Amino acid sequence: MDIGAAELTTWVDDPWAGESYSVAGIAAHPDDAEMLGQGFGRVLIAGEHTAVEWSGLMEGALRSGQRAADQLAGFEVA
Ligand SMILES: Cc1cc2nc3c(=O)[nH]c(=O)nc-3n(C[C@H](O)[C@H](O)[C@H](O)COP(=O)(O)OP(=O)(O)OC[C@H]3O[C@@H](n4cnc5c(N)ncnc54)[C@H](O)[C@@H]3O)c2cc1C
Predict the structure, then answer these.
(1) For the segment 40-70, what is each residue's pLDDT rounded down to a tens digit?
(2) Could you give the count of Cα atoms lying within 13 Å of 9 in the half-sphere of its Cβ?
(3) Is the shortest distance between the CB of 28 and ligand 1 below 6 Å?
(4) I want to staple 28 with a disulfide (CB 3.0 to 4.6 A). Which of 2, 24, 39, 47 is the partner?
(5) Helix or strand or coil: residue 68?
(6) Ligand 1 close to Cβ of residue 17 (< 6 A)
(7) How far does residue 33's CA lie from ligand 1's centre (Å)?
(8) Sign, CA torsion 17/58/23/66
(9) Nearest Cα residue to atom 14 of ligand 1
(10) How far apart are CA 59 and CA 22, in angstroms?
């Protein structure tokens, strides 16, 4: 590993790190994430909060973006 090429970043000193993740409240339903991921008509929703078992993780954010893009690609142009 080239130590000189490595860069250490931390959440507190990285101006581009402003992200967060969801936490289910006491009124949340277990199916909420899946329901949100289905979208509402032509309104599609991506984000880790829609990624069911991957919620709260970068992996969930990536998977939800791919899923929303796939949904969008499936739309027919009116
Ligand atoms: C301190 C911390 C440590 C973490 N550590 C890890 C880890 O080690 N591993 C891991 O896998 N995950 C980790 N996570 C979780 C991971 O960062 C998130 O799951 C991921 O960033 C969520 O991505 P997202 O695209 O769903 O949402 P976000 O990254 O939150 O992106 C949402 C974007 O929408 C923007 N936005 C909000 N409101 C509006 C609006 N009205 N109009 C326009 N834009 C808007 C926000 O500015 C933001 O850029 C961590 C999170 C935090 C906070």
Answers:
(1) 999 999 999 999 999 999 999 999 999 999 9
(2) 7
(3) no
(4) 24
(5) helix
(6) no
(7) 16
(8) positive
(9) 57
(10) 14
Do 45 and 37 form a contact (C-beta atoms < 8 A)? yes
28-78: CATH number: 1.10.10
Tokens 């969930």 correspond to 60
Q: What is the pTM of this model?
A: 0.84
Helix-then-strand count for the chain, H and E: 2, 0
Tell me the CA–centroid distance for residue 78 and ligand 1, in Å: 33
Structure confidence by residue, pLDDT tens digits, 14-50: 888 877 889 989 999 999 999 999 999 999 999 999 9
pLDDT given for residue 4 in this prediction: 87
d(CA 36, CA 33): 5
